[in-house]
Amino acid sequence: MKLSWKRYDLQLKHTFRIARNARETVPVMILSLTHDGITAYGEASPNIRYGENIATLNAFFEKVDLTKFDSPFAVDEILRYVAEIEVGNNSAKCAVDLALHDWIGKKLNVPLWKMWGLSPANAPFSSFTIAIDTKEIVRQKVLEAEDFPILKIKVGLENDREMIETIREITGKPLYVDANEGWKTREKALESVRWLKDKNVVFIEQPMPAAQFEDTKWLRDRSEIPLIADESVHYLADVPKLADAFDGINIKLMKSAGLREAVRMIHAGRANNLKIMLGCMIETAVGISAAAQLSPLLDYCDLDGNVLISNDPFDGCRNIKGRLELTKKSGLGAEPFE
Ligand code: MG
Q: What's the CA-to-centroid distance between 239 and ligand 1, angstroms?
């Protein structure tokens, strides 16, 4: 098994501002795995929230030596080895997991959703994300998102109400609201939640910092809008305790270190009566196509990371008006344009 990796700088169509930061471009790494005449792909979109960047990815991939394994079919064994190389760097580990799954699907000539026995018709629509911006730009973004039936709105700075009011001047579509840990006190969070009531908000994602678990419990007891964990949930082991403070979990492959752990988390979430959402970082069609393979298992889907960029180097799962198209293409179903 041979690995190689290449950096791509993804260009955002609009500045992507959330409660934590703002970005114009996002560097990602595409991992290629070649074995037995088949080339498979994985992706790492590093997140500074979790101490990752292009340098940490490079250093991690340098350490991965798959020569001791016979074939990518040994997924469990390989991923256990990869997990133990070092703590963290989950997006790098995710790239390995995706490439292994892509290779297996290609070898068996079957898309992953089919291999797992899933029905594309069960997949919910994906939301389209509107990041924090001025009134004028928000208005423009909402009009550009006309075809998408659900909007996900980033809040958590000073202009929350202006954002929501601007959107509501244009559309009554259901909204997913994501504060990205931006409400720092429980009183502020409760005031925001109460204000959002009766505004057709389906849920609120990560209202408060992950460290403020007790405050989030307090908020949930008073909130009429369901709360979804994002920054509070990474792995399988996080899931059971979250049921005390949240109504659902937003799983991301870049946090869970790939598809294998994400599947376990989906089932653990169900067992704990949590709603299941799958989200993404800013990613190419490689990461999005991988996540889309699991979309029939979800309650909520937020897989628009490659719709927000203008230079996706991969052709993969297409997002048609919020509907993620699961095709017969084998593996993840994403191939480079070049
Ligand atoms: Mg989020």
A: 16
Say if residue 97 is in the same domain as residue 124.
no
Are 251 and 218 within one domain? yes
Mark whether 238 and 311 lie in a shared domain.
yes
Identify the CATH number of the domain in which residue 257 sits: 3.20.20.120
CA of residue 19 to ligand 1 center, whole Å:
10
Assign 338 a pLDDT band (cuts: 50, 70, 90). confident
Q: What's the average model confidence in pLDDT over 168-190?
A: 97
> Average of pLDDT values for 32-42?
98
Q: Please tell me whether residue 86 adopts helix, strand or coil conformation.
A: coil
Cβ atoms of residues 209 and 230 within 8 Å: no
Tell me, what's the pLDDT at 167? 97
Residue 20: predicted pLDDT: 86
pTM of the model: 0.95
In DSSP terms, 5 is beta-bridged to 31
Beta carbons of 29 and 43 less than 8 angstroms apart: yes
| Statement to judge: residues 321 and 194 lie in one domain | yes
Number of domains in the chain: 2
| Domain hosting residue 91, numbered range | 2-110
Beta strands in 124-189 (DSSP E): 128-130, 151-154, 175-178
Instruction: List CB-based neighbours of ion ligand 1 within 5 Å.
Output: 178, 205, 230
Determine the distance separating the centroid of ligand 1 and the alpha carbon of 328, expressed in angstroms.
30
Q: What is the pLDDT of residues 95-125, one digit of tens each?
A: 999 999 999 999 999 999 999 999 999 999 9
Ligand 1 mean position, distance from CA 207 (Å): 9
